[in-house]
Amino acid sequence: LWRKLALIPLPEKTETYQPLPHLDFIYELTNMARKLIGDVGIPKVSIAKEGNRMFGVVPISVGRTDEYEFALGFRNSYDKSMTAGVCFGNRVFVCDNLAFNGNITVMRKHTKNIHNDLNAMLVTKLLKAEGEITVLQNDFEKLKNVYISKEAMAIQGSGWVYLAKNGEVVL
Q1: CA 155 to CA 74: how far, in whole Å?
Q2: Backbone angles phi, psi at 111, to 5 degrees
Q3: What is the pLDDT of residues 30-61, one digit of tens each?
């Protein structure tokens, strides 16, 4: 896949459009995350629309347990269908239908200075992500000790979960 990414032709730069090479984006993101957050795993990358759209996830080893793992999601395009973006969190969602979500999200249009601007935005957000790991870990630990009754689960489920007459929780 890495060779395939390298062979995808980069679109021409214009007055209003500055392409961001897929491989450069992944390389800069993973190196920056490694420096600012800590150990990162191997990026899992997919391409769509003949390489014009690229999506992926990088697992973050810091804070990882059997119960949760943090990750960076990323996306980029050569066909001007979406902004370059990075998301971070204990759950990230990156899809070829342009859906993109995480606890922290950064997006930048492919215009002049995208490299410098995106890198500056990423430094700020990745530093915030480092603190977010600690906050989320503390929240997870607190929630482990919170008792929720079946009735409360039924109410919170908003139709996904309800309480049957016999008191059992039904999905």
Answers
A1: 35
A2: -120, 180
A3: 988 888 887 888 999 999 999 999 999 999 87
DSSP string for residues in 68-112? --EEEEEEEESSSSS-EEEEEESS-EE-TTS-EE-SEEEEE-SST
Q: Distance between CA atoms of 139 and 8, rounded to whole angstroms?
A: 43
Q: How far apart are CA 84 and CA 1, in angstroms?
A: 20
- Per residue in 58-77, pLDDT (tens digit) is 998 766 667 777 889 999 99
163 within 8 A of 170, measured Cβ to Cβ: yes
Question: Using CA atoms, how far apart are residues 129 and 110, in angstroms rounded to an integer?
Answer: 24
The helix (H) or strand (E) run that includes residue 132 is helix 114-144
Distance CA 159, CA 162 (A): 6
CA 65, distance to chain mean position in Å, is: 18
pTM, rounded to two decimals: 0.76
